[in-house]
Amino acid sequence: xxxxxxxxxxxxxxxxxxxxxxxxxxxxxxxxxxxxxxxxxxxxxxxxxxxxxxxxxxxxxxxxxxxxxxxxxxxxxxxxxxxxxxxxxxxxxxxxxxxxxxxxxxxxxxxxxxxxxxxxxxxxxxxxxxxxxxxxxxxxxxxxxxxxxxxxxxxxxxxxxxxxxxxxxxxxxxxxxxxxxxxxxxxxxxxxxxxxxxxxxxxxxxxxxxxxxxxxxxxxxxxxxxxxxxxxxxxxxxxxxxxxxxxxxxxxxxxxxxxxxxxxxxxxxxxxxxxxxxxxxxxxxxxxxxxxxxxxxxxxxxxxxxxxxxxxxxxxxxxxxxxxxxxxxxxxxxxxxxxxxxxxxxxxx
Length: 349
What we know:
Structural class: mainly alpha
Radius of gyration: 21 Å
Strand content: under 5%
Distance between the termini: 33 Å
Order of helices and strands: HHHHHHHHHHHHHHHHHH
Number of helices: 18
Largest sheet: none
């Protein structure tokens, strides 16, 4: 029983030669989503600083914007994330200058170091360099002691744990390390939706190494923190998707697990497929086609509700979604099998 399979949720593209395409895709994503509430950027809680904004005011920044505008269209330039400024501009053949010295002096040394670390970490995450990212954050986590670093460390440790070929013992070690980092991040900043989201994900992961009683008990904690993440940022499609997975999991819980839960808890966790459908649909409304797994789950939920026509629509979209990752390929495979099984049902309707 697992409800947080988010190994590469929301990531675009593969490794190696796809890095350029991923950077442009993430820039376009910024345009689609528009400005974040309160000036916060969309990358799970970080803040766009004035020092980084002034990069565009430098001659190199203006040249980068002009070059990218010709290459990608002016809208992509307007939507660029600050964490991608150096990477995209470098790809365009423009050497970005650092922010003016006055901007660096306007913040303390530790704040500037934190800004630069987050910029580097987000670049490594976007280019799928999980091991480099993990080592970088692990080395700096205690020195900078920031919730922004800690939840990213939790995510990086989890990414390593989820890789194929990772031994069970190493996966266990990384899962508990991720949980510790997520807990420290949440303790530091309980107002961060990213801290709540990654704490819930990590609690779910360690449940794989504990008994069924602990796993069911953790379900209440997981739900609470996913809901808090949504409350803090209702425009994050990943949190909505994960809450949908939680509902779907308990809606289809096998009868024997329901009996165990009923014995252990006076009010065991429960949900309906209608609730799952609502969360998956909201995630798709926030950012259409953001994740192949969300489209697959919309199709599967519609099947459970007896809506074959709706299931065919979403399963077809999941099947036709470009497979950029191993997870996308698995989604395509499952969608094809489900389409085969329900095509006859659709014809009889």
